[in-house]
Amino acid sequence: MDTLVELLTDPLLLPADPSRRLFWLFLISALLMASLVVTLRQKRFDLRYQLSQLFSTRYWLHPSNFKDGGLLFLNNGLKTLLLVPLLGSYFVGAIAFGTFLQKHLGDAPELPGSVLAVGIAYTLVFFIVEDLSRFLLHYCLHKYPWLWRFHQTHHSATNLTPLTVHRVHPVEMVLYNLRGFLVFSVVSGLFIYLFKGRVNGIDILGVDCLGFLFNLLGANLRHTPVWLSFGRLESYFISPAQHQLHHSIADQHRDKNFGTCFALWDKLAGSWLPAGTYQKLTYGVPGSALANTSIFPLASQRRRHRFFGGRAWRWLHNTQSTP
Ligand SMILES: [Zn+2]
Ligand SMILES: [Zn+2]
Q1: What are the tens digits of pLDDT across the range 66-77?
Q2: Which ligand is nearest to the CA of 165?
Q3: Which of 144, 145, 143, 142 is nearest to 154 (CA)?
């Protein structure tokens, strides 16, 4: 019974968790940045207009949002019941990888570096590898048709809100968590092997400081209609407007801007697209009425529907166009 209550209340506590993008401070910083963007675009501060946009029922009660919320609860439940017991603590993976290196490579060479210097190096390397791994997985989710079937769930959002970050197919949620486990284990294990007791990441409120900064600087605007472009800085960092282009159904925006923070990966892959000036975008999956996404892509449609119930199946897999 306690577990059930926990499963139902956990997602409601996300605004209290500094390690999550929906942490209250990140929501407030995004709100302030959104207000600044609108003020600059309109060349005046119109509080009445901004409040009417912020509390628009058309935006917050859009049918697309309910699926975002549903998947947040579903994925949270699956993660708590399946993934956490399976993966255990991420530190176990790091210790295991460090021990593996020690066993196969022998003692690490004596490397110089104060605790602070090692901490800065570890924080930077971890953030860069984390960002690269997110890019690679996102790239594969688009390029391999059997993975795209799962990733379509995220792209089927026709209205972007900060909750849309949680609108992912359970298979994609598992893939992202396995990726996170692998990256943490390898990077932390390597640093533990090389620097032993000198590995201390630089934290803010117990959260990796660069991830914290990324979220503080408007990451929530990636899934909103607020057009925040970084201008020339987009050559280095992916802006919220660039991620909105990634969600656009227009042909010229397809398979662009896979990155989370750094633009370098998209530049190397030829998928970087600057946001440019404001564009009105339509979000969703092109031709989603014909989309056929599946948890078991090889099983027949008919069999799936018989086993899982057609309505629930279609809700999860976008076999119908979203409103
Ligand atoms: Zn995508
Ligand atoms: Zn997105």
Answers
A1: 999 999 999 999
A2: 2
A3: 142
Q: Is 204 helix (H, G, I), strand (E, B) or coil?
A: strand
Distance (angstroms) between ligand 1 centre and the Cα of 204 equals 29
Q: What spacing in Å lies between the alpha carbon of 243 and ligand 1's midpoint?
A: 9
Ligand nearest to the CA of 255: 1
How many domains does the chain contain in total? 2
What mean pLDDT is predicted for residues 210-220?
93
Give whole-number Cα distances, 202 to 29, 124, 133, 310, in Å. Answer: 22, 9, 21, 48
Q: pLDDT at residue 109 above 90?
A: no
Amino acid symbol at 293: T
Does 194 share its domain with 312?
Answer: no
Q: What are phi and psi of 207, to 5 degrees?
A: -115, 140
Give 214 Cα–ligand 1 centroid separation in angstroms. Answer: 19
Cα(90) to centroid(ligand 1), Å: 26
Residue 145 CB contacts under 8 Å (≥ 6 apart), including other chains: none
Question: How far is it, in rounded angstroms, from Cα 99 to Cα 49?
Answer: 59
Shared domain check, 183 and 61: yes
Is residue 158 within 8 Å of 62, Cβ to Cβ?
yes
**How far is residue 84's CA from residue 286's CA, in Å, rounded to a whole number?**
35
What's the chain's average pLDDT?
Answer: 87
For residue range 137-152, what is the model confidence (pLDDT) as tens digits? 999 999 999 999 999 9
Could you tell me if 36 and 181 lie in one domain? Answer: yes
- Domain for residue 80, yes or no? yes
Task: Tell me how far apart the 2 most distant CA atoms of the chain are, in Å.
Answer: 67
pTM to 2 decimals?
Answer: 0.86
Nearest bound ligand to CA 137? 1
Q: Tell me the ligand closest to 242's alpha carbon.
A: 2
By residue range, what is the domain housing residue 313? 287-323
Q: How far is the CA of 138 from the centre of ligand 1 (A)?
A: 6
CA distance 292 to 300: 11
